[in-house]
Amino acid sequence: MIRAGNAGPGVVVADNVWLLPLKDLDGDARAVKLGEIAGLEVSAEHRMFVGDPLRMALTGLAEDGRYPYVIDSDGTAVGVLTLQAGAATLAGWPDDHTAWLLRGFAIDRHRQGRGLGRIAAAKAVVAAAKLTAAHGRREAGVVLSVNEANPAGLAAYRHAGFVDHGQYLGGTSGPQRIMYSRFTS
Ligand SMILES: CC(C)(COP(=O)(O)OP(=O)(O)OC[C@H]1O[C@@H](n2cnc3c(N)ncnc32)[C@H](O)[C@@H]1OP(=O)(O)O)[C@@H](O)C(=O)NCCC(=O)NCCS
Is 46 near ligand 1, meaning CB less than 6 Å away? Predict the structure, then answer.
């Protein structure tokens, strides 16, 4: 374990956080990780911000253009996220194709507040840049929308380097902030 360089006092984070692309795992490894994802918990107060982790992972596996990841720490699943191509306007971005959409982002409720979210969000940007390069696409960064009433999400994304690009009033769960992180190279 290490203390994160920009973490607040007393915040200790794991130094071994990995994003494992579910679509690239072999069948056995994927089944193990899906079993772990099934055990992830979203608190009642957070259910308005995110869906069920297993359902989000399975939806990501079933759809072209979606790349679901399991967030692993100390060898076990602690969360999930999905990168989606061609869908950035769902987060209030002006077009669909210059940014990846980050969606379905959740850390198990028992593991929150330790810096895992900010690390995973930063690693999602690196993973997205690799997808763009591997597939010859033209995204320049990652965008998401986060509810204005979600302080943990706002803080985690800000600490991961995402920049506020204004308010988004689409969707059904109240005002959102559009947050964007450009690829670094
Ligand atoms: C959002 C989420 C992924 C963040 O994961 P995490 O591992 O807890 O994030 P981190 O520990 O890296 O950072 C959380 C930050 O929020 C802060 N925070 C947590 N609860 C807070 C609250 N009620 N008010 C203000 N800040 C809060 C923490 O203090 C920390 O900031 P700090 O580093 O400045 O102290 C996690 O809370 C989660 O899964 N929430 C439910 C699903 C969700 O909201 N997903 C995002 C949808 S866009």
Answer: yes
Domain that holds residue 22: 2-182
- Separation of CA 135 and ligand 1 centre (Å): 32
H/E stretch holding 105? strand 99-107
CA 182 to ligand 1 centroid distance, Å? 21
pLDDT at 9 over 80: no
Closest residue CA from atom 21 of ligand 1: 152
Cα 124 from Cα 19, distance rounded (Å): 7
CB half-sphere exposure, 115, CA atoms < 13 A:
17
**What's the predicted TM-score (pTM) here?**
0.92
Res 119: pLDDT: 96
Count of domains for the chain: 1
Is the pLDDT score of 68 beyond 90? yes
Integer CA distances (angstroms), 129 to 3, 71, 166, in order: 26, 17, 23
